[in-house]
Structure formats: C-alpha cells, structure tokens
Amino acid sequence: MSGFLDILLYVLMGVVFVILCAGIYSLVRGGDFGRSWSNKLMRARVLFQFLAVLVIVAGFWAKGAFGG
What is the Cα–Cα distance from 62 to 68, expressed in whole angstroms? Predict the structure, then answer.
C-alpha cells in the first residue's frame, strides 16, 4: 500500500508542478489568456495540492497503523 501512495504522491506533485508552470505562463503572457485562465489554474493547483496533502497524511497513517 505504501508503494501505491508513493507513486500517487509523485504523480500529484508532477501535476501540481505542471499547473504551476502553466499559471506562471498565463501571468507572463497576460491579456485575455491571462484573465481567462489565471483563476482556473489557481483553483486547480489548490485542489491538487490538497489531494497531495491527503496522500501524505494517508501515508503517515498507513505507516503508523501497519508498521511499515
């Protein structure tokens, strides 16, 4: 189970990184693109960061509950 959570955490961190880079790009580009995508990307990043934190908590719980 811990291996699955590790892989899931790395995937979520990668998704957060990609969304963060897209958000920075939208800020640099500006204009209509920035206005239409900036808030959507920020919400998506916050959602995936929350999911990553949940996976971290689940990993700590699994390690404590199952000893490993």
Answer: 7
Q: Which residues contact 49 (CB under 8 A, 6 or more apart)?
A: 16
DSSP state of 67: -
Residue 16's pLDDT is 96
Do 15 and 47 form a contact (C-beta atoms < 8 A)? no
Residue/partner pairs of 3-7 with CB below 8 Å, 24 or more apart? 5/55, 5/58, 5/59, 5/62, 6/59
Does residue 67 have a pLDDT over 90?
A: no
DSSP H helical ranges for the chain: 2-29, 31-66
**pTM for the complete prediction?**
0.83
Instruction: Report the distance separating Cα 19 and Cα 65, nearest Å.
Output: 33
* Gap between the Cα atoms of 64 and 61, Å rounded: 5
